[in-house]
């Protein structure tokens, strides 16, 4: 196993002081980098472990913050913050750009070789960066089939992969259809993987607090979704280039 170095990074966004988690691979040379967005609850050890796993594969990885260092265990508090955020593309872009700036200025990052991966609200932020025309090598999302403002998807400059559970009540078939119609109309290189029998946030291990209805862990599909994301990065952002 390669040696990974980690540290927290503070930066301003959305009128808050965000606390991200940076994982660096062994060595001193510049490497491709991945921005990782968390579920609506906020940055947790789940995303920190994913950043470390990507660093093990040779990527610089930054798991970004949504709530100023807070993890919102109360579903009502989480929805009260995330629903207005999801309805405001400019706020999402601001959060994404602030984290992207941190990642780009990291000396180990190759600034022209960056991908964005996000889950739930963090995935919506990743998509908004694409709709804002950011030069990304790939966008990967899980249970984040959000649509954007008319015609802005045409500004996405990279392949988009999206994963969703077939039984996700928050991202139902109508939402899937709206998302894929937007991607197709914009000429995006897109893929959608539907994981049979999975609920919303199927990738996230069980939590020891209340969760919104329709959320449930699916261990097999969680592993498959992670492998699909790693494959997307290997295709679009190989560490050996």
From TrEMBL:
Q: Which InterPro entries would you find in this protein's record?
A: AB_hydrolase_fold, Dienelactn_hydro, FrsA_esterase
**Dienelactone hydrolase domain residues:** 20-235
Record Pfam families: DLH (PF01738)
Gene Ontology terms for molecular function: hydrolase activity
Query: So which domain of life are we looking at?
Result: Bacteria
Q: Which UniProt keywords apply?
A: Hydrolase
Q: Which family does it belong to?
A: Belongs to the AB hydrolase superfamily.
User: What is this protein's record name?
Assistant: Dienelactone hydrolase family protein
Q: Which organism is it from?
A: Streptomyces luteireticuli
């Amino acid at each position: 196993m390669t040696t990974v170095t980690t540290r927290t990074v503070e930066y301003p966004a959305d009128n808050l002081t965000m606390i991200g988690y940076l994982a660096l691979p062994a060595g001193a040379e510049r490497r491709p980098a991945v921005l990782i967005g968390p579920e609506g609850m906020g940055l947790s050890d789940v995303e920190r472990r994913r950043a470390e796993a990507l660093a093990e594969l040779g990527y610089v990885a930054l798991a970004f913050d949504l709530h100023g260092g807070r993890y919102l265990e109360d579903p009502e508090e989480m929805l009260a913050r995330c629903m207005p955020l999801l309805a405001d593309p400019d706020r999402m872009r601001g959060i994404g750009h602030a984290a992207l700036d941190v990642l780009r200025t990291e000396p180990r990052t190759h600034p022209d070789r960056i991908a964005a991966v996000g889950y739930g609200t963090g995935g919506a932020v990743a998509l908004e960066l694409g709709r804002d025309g950011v030069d990304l090598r790939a966008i990967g999302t899980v249970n984040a089939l959000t649509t954007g403002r008319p015609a802005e998807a045409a500004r996405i400059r990279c392949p988009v992969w999206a994963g969703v559970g077939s039984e996700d009540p928050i991202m139902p078939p109508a939402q899937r259809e709206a998302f894929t119609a937007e991607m197709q109309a914009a000429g995006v290189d897109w893929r959608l993987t539907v994981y049979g029998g999975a609920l919303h946030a199927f990738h996230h291990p069980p939590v020891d607090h209340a969760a919104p209805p329709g959320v449930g862990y699916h261990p097999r599909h969680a592993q498959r979704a992670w492998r699909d994301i790693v494959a997307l990065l290997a295709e679009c952002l190989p560490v050996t280039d």
